[in-house]
Predict the structure of Glutathione S-transferase.
Amino acid sequence: MSDMELIGSRGCGSAIVEMALEQANMPYRLTDLPYLKPGPGRDRLLSLNTAGQVPTLVLPDGQVMTESAAIMLHLNDIAPAAGLIPPKGQERARCWNLLIRLVSSIYPTFTYSDIPENWTTAGPPAQRLRQTVRQRREQLWREFESQTGEPHVLGRRYSVLDLYVAVMTHWYPGRAWFEAECPRIHAAALRAAESPVVAGVLARHFDPPLE
């Protein structure tokens, strides 16, 4: 049986899946490419994932997974000892709720703010869209903060949510903003980075930091 293949890019959400694969001690190979740059790498990515996004995970049987939350649930199924998702019960329900909030509410804001010209006219309209979406993102993070525990996102239990905040706090509005406005999220991200696995992936993706 061949290993899984993770297609990702530096500084992107593929870092979260990379952490999970390392934490689960799953054999995989990493294909790292600038996913928006035209060329053979992007052509292959588009052949596997028509959205042209990372992470894209190719399973040993050739099946392709393209959504990070789905990938996390799959990894938990095949490597439950990694502790990515809590056992059945209220804690698992809360983990799933917060996970879906991250990927369905907060994560998509980057689609519209990173290159707003894809969605509106260049110039002032694009600038307004970026500003409005970023303000909405900050509001969503504050709501997430109200549901974040200590010392981890779920409270006493470490989970996949800590991998998400470890990466996403490096993105706009940046770590200084989280420290000031969302201290529990910031603290959970720092706590996650105490793991050698998490620290190693962060160093590869955000050295120097990307904000």
The domain at 90-194 is CATH 1.20.1050 (Glutathione S-transferase Yfyf (Class Pi); Chain A, domain 2).
